């Protein structure tokens, strides 16, 4: 990412160029990203190609002022953080679905971020309704956040009875266990600790953007955190407002003009037509879709 793109990206987030890659700056960037860059899957339903290359992701978020799903949002955010001097590692995750079943390999992309002041953090701006701030990567107790109560714990064996993290090795030569990320006591996704490259996620992104079994092809979502800690979500034609205290209201938008206006005015997304659902039927799983 070149310096001009960094400056434009930061302007979109409404953040000054930081002097140092500290944890406090990371917290601000993380929250502002959730507030300004929507979690959305509109490209799937507009027939737009999703390309997991840093330049294309940055162009989408910075130049086109769009959002995306996990691969795009965390891919672009990771590129920004690296350009600002953070030590960023891409991690692969599998999302827990119905009955506690794990999703496909490379189901989710999250970030392990090291700061100049010694912290190590789980940053994730691409999981829909999740933590507003990065989570302490090495902490195993409860972590309170405006988005809920979170824990990161060592994972037990998977369905095949395998416990280790795909051959990743800790200092001292022991296999590093996978990690489960919990919200409100419920497992959200399982992380491998082995570093990954952006290209490793191409198959997962392709599956989620094409398979009738993926909920991303069966529904429309556009969502962001609001400045008061709540959330707004446009699911098809239903516009939902969730307050920070959990109070909710929703209404159906009756015309295409109202839908396009909501995308433009509430999410900053300019579209020339209303997206239509690619696969309206099917049974899917994968990344979390905001419930608010």
Termini Cα gap:
33 Å
CATH top level label: Alpha Beta
Please give the share of residues in helix. 25-40%
CATH topology: Arylamine N-acetyltransferase fold
Number of domains: 1
Strand proportion = 25-35%
Label the structural class: alpha+beta
Oligomer: single chain
Q: How many E-type strands?
A: 15
The succession of helices and strands, N to C, reads HHEHHHEEEEEEEEEEHHEEEEH
Q: What is the residue-mean pLDDT, rounded to a whole number?
A: 91
Strand order of the largest sheet: 5-4-3-2-11-10-7-6
The number of helices is: 8
| Cα-atom radius of gyration | 18 Å
**Low-confidence blocks of residues:** 165-174
Outline the biggest β-sheet.
8 strands, antiparallel
From the 3D coordinates, which CATH architecture would you assign? 2-Layer Sandwich
Given the C-alpha coordinates, what overall shape results?
A: globular
């Amino acid at each position: 990412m070149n310096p001009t793109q960094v400056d434009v990206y930061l302007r979109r987030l409404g953040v000054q160029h930081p002097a140092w890659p500290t944890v406090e700056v990371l917290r601000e960037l993380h929250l502002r990203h959730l507030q300004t860059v929507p979690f959305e899957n509109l490209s799937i339903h507009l027939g737009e190609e999703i390309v997991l290359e840093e330049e294309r992701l940055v162009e989408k978020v910075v130049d086109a002022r769009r959002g995306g799903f996990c691969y795009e949002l965390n891919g672009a955010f990771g590129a920004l953080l690296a350009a600002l001097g953070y030590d960023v590692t891409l991690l692969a995750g599998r999302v827990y679905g119905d009955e506690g079943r794990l999703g496909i390999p490379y189901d989710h992309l999250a970030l392990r971020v090291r700061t100049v002041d010694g912290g190590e953090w789980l940053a994730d701006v691409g999981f829909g309704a999740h933590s507003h701030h990065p989570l302490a990567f090495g902490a195993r107790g409860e972590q309170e956040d405006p988005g809920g109560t979170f824990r990161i714990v060592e994972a037990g064996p998977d369905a095949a009875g395998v416990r280790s993290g795909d051959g990743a090795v800790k200092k001292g030569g022991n296999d590093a266990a996978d990690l489960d990320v919990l919200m409100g006591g419920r497992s959200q996704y399982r992380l491998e600790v082995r570093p990954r490259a952006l290209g490793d996620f191409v198959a997962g992104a392709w599956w989620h953007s094409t398979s009738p079994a993926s909920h991303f092809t069966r529904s429309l979502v556009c969502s962001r955190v609001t400045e008061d800690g709540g959330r707004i979500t446009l699911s098809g034609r239903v516009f939902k407002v969730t307050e920070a205290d959990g109070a909710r209201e929703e209404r159906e938008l009756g015309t295409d003009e109202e839908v396009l206006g909501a995308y433009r005015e509430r999410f900053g997304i300019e579209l020339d037509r209303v997206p239509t659902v690619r696969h309206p039927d099917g049974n899917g799983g994968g990344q979390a879709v905001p419930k608010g």
